[in-house]
Specification:
Helix content: 10-25%
Order of helices and strands: EEEEHHEHEEEHE
Low-confidence stretches: none
Number of helices: 4
Number of strands: 9
């Protein structure tokens, strides 16, 4: 789950960034708060989290002071500048090392790139349940060939024909 950690009144906070807020559909100053949680379908238990700044320098509003990259604070600062899809893998691996187990990972379409899905399967042993982005650039194995998601849905005549499993090409 990702949420906006709004810091609109701040001006000189370390790694303050312009973050896109999907509700009003505009950029705000703050951080992206990424939370990994475990759910049984009724309840949600936060397991791990991370505050993310901008991975791209053009969205960064305030640099951080020089810091020791070996310390825990330094590692967190370094992690905050990485891409969200890369940090997801780190959060899951850390949770698994601490004894949290799961059979699959559920997330929204913003993280549903074949690279992320493949990394979760190979590095963490997790299958994923996600909405797939409508893109003509990404091809999937389906029936007898390789198709983008628009072509797959075009082949389906009604809701019963819609595929429930597609495998991204590696």
């Amino acid at each position: 789950m990702d949420s906006l950690f709004d810091r609109s009144r701040s001006k000189k906070t370390e790694f303050l960034a312009k973050v896109f807020d999907h509700c009003p559909m505009k950029y705000k100053n703050g951080y992206c708060m990424l939370t990994l949680g475990w759910s049984d379908g009724n309840s949600f238990v936060p397991v791990n989290h991370c505050l993310l700044s901008a991975a791209d320098d053009k969205n960064l509003l305030c640099e951080a002071a020089d810091f020791d990259r070996r310390s825990l604070a330094g590692k967190r600062r370094k992690q905050s500048r990485r891409k969200t899809t890369e940090v997801i893998i780190d959060l899951v691996e850390t949770a698994q090392l601490s004894g949290v187990s799961a059979k699959y990972m559920l997330f929204d379409s913003w993280a549903s790139s074949p690279k992320t899905i493949t990394a979760l399967k190979t590095n963490c042993g997790l299958d994923t349940i996600t909405m797939i982005k409508k893109s003509s650039k990404i091809k999937y194995d389906y029936l007898d060939g390789k198709y983008n998601i628009k072509e797959i849905y075009r082949q389906c005549k009604n809701a019963e024909d819609a595929p429930s499993i597609c495998f991204p090409l590696i």
